[in-house]
Amino acid sequence: MATGTIISLGLYFAAMLGIGLFAYRQTDTNVEGYMLGGRQLGPAVTALSAGASDMSGWMLMGLPGAMYVSGLSAGWIAVGLTLGALANYLLVAPRLRVYTEVANNSITLPDYFENRFADNSRILRVIASIVIVVFFTLYTSSGVVAGGKLFESSFNLSYEIGLYVTAGVVVAYTLVGGFMAVSMTDFVQGCIMFVSLVMVPVVVVMELGGLSGAVTAIENINPDLLKPFVDAIDGEHLTIIGIISLMAWGLGYFGQPHIIVRFMAIRSVKDIPTARNIGMSWMIVSITGALMTGLFGLAYVTSVQQTQIDPETVFIHLSQILFHPLIGGFLLAAILAAIMSTISSQLLVTSSSLTSDFYQAFLRKEASDMELVIAGRVSVVAVALVSIYLAYDRDSTILNLVSNAWAGFGAAFGPLVLFSLFRRDMTRRAALGGMIVGAVTVLLWIYLPVEINGQSLSSWIYEIVPGFVLSSLTIIILSKFGKPREGVTETFDKFQAELKSHL
């Protein structure tokens, strides 16, 4: 590995650990401070930490790889994600920030569900917590796997060393600084990703003789790559179902705990419009950069180098051959930033759920703030160790489960979050039914041996679509056959009044 690359990565790791220590010194030593940063996130940190924890390595590897293979038709995923993120800022962010505080100062999503519906049985909290712990432990493991493979393929180090380095650095700053450290490091990591996704496609286009030269090179490879309604793999036109399936990724935003927890932690509702403008600007530029990296990277690799690579490594490949090792190290740090930002967010959400929704709720109801912070830190280490253990198995089983987690969270929690913020008469039974129906529908859609036009259900249409629709219908129907529990509608009215006073 070149000395410049080692220096860049060393500086990156040192910066992350330094931010963790700074956050530790600035954060209140109570459970709200550790789990939600004392609800004091500024708009810029909120926006970029939400974006960085959202996109993960998918932004720098998965999306460029999809564009590399399918051309502009893969862009419909980006369109759906952008619209979904915007809707999340408009519909969920201000309401969830206010309602979680009104609903007995809820710190986690399961905590909010229980308080919102006055669920004394605690079954809502338990089921939501189990979903979060199971899926996020697997999700975290996939990030650790990505880090291990990055170290193995790019740095000529063993896969196992990559696992421990990736997880070790993330655990260190998450363990020490809690939510504030995670959010602050995500902010820095988001900035690194932004710069990288501007630099790489711009340099590639310049190497191809400008935009016209790059477009010509793509046309010479396959004109279908430049047609948004044609899949360049087989030359077939996309159907309406196909476009809906790709854009449906945006529905997942409403139910992603590691993203919407940022809305719970922002300093003020009045900061949300600023956060939205920053976050959406960051997302549009970054996604466009990722798409162009895949498309023009294909032109460079094919026409200039005349070689073949794994499509998902196009960003890594270009960063190593087009830039000085010092800058190349910075670009590799961008991939690590994408991976680590998501791992840290998932670790903290899982830790928060274990601490608040299991330890405090069932084992130590009178636990002090200091005891809960310690329990949270122990949970971070425990989840990380389980994730590393699972990451030793490179089989696709784990990765396949994690690839469906977005749909699972989106269908199980998305309609529940939305209706809980907008529907006054929503009942506990409707909330429970909607969550279960959404999750089960996604699993059945993936694993049922049923085909439509020779395609599996999941290949025919993305499983989040039927999951989201059926969950929503369940909530609507069950709410008509019951009444909210005592005090629920009064709390909703208080939330509405509080919301109006902030807007």
Based on the model shown, name its key terms:
2 domains; mainly alpha; Sodium/glucose cotransporter; 503 residues; 4 strands
Structure description:
With 503 residues, this protein is mainly α. The protein has 2 domains: 3-395, Sodium/glucose cotransporter (Up-down Bundle), CATH 1.20.1730; 404-498, no CATH class. Helices cover 76% and strands 2% of the residues. The chain has 21 helices and 4 strands. Strands 1-2 form a two-stranded antiparallel ribbon. Strands 3-4 form a two-stranded antiparallel sheet. The longest helix is centred in the middle third of the chain and has 49 residues, at 159-207. The radius of gyration is 22 Å and the shape is globular. The N and C termini lie far apart (53 Å). The chain crosses the membrane at residues 6-24, 67-91, 123-141, 161-182, 194-218, 238-261, 282-301, 321-349, 370-392, 398-418, 430-448, 460-478. It comes from Alteromonas aquimaris. It is found in: Cell inner membrane; Cell membrane.
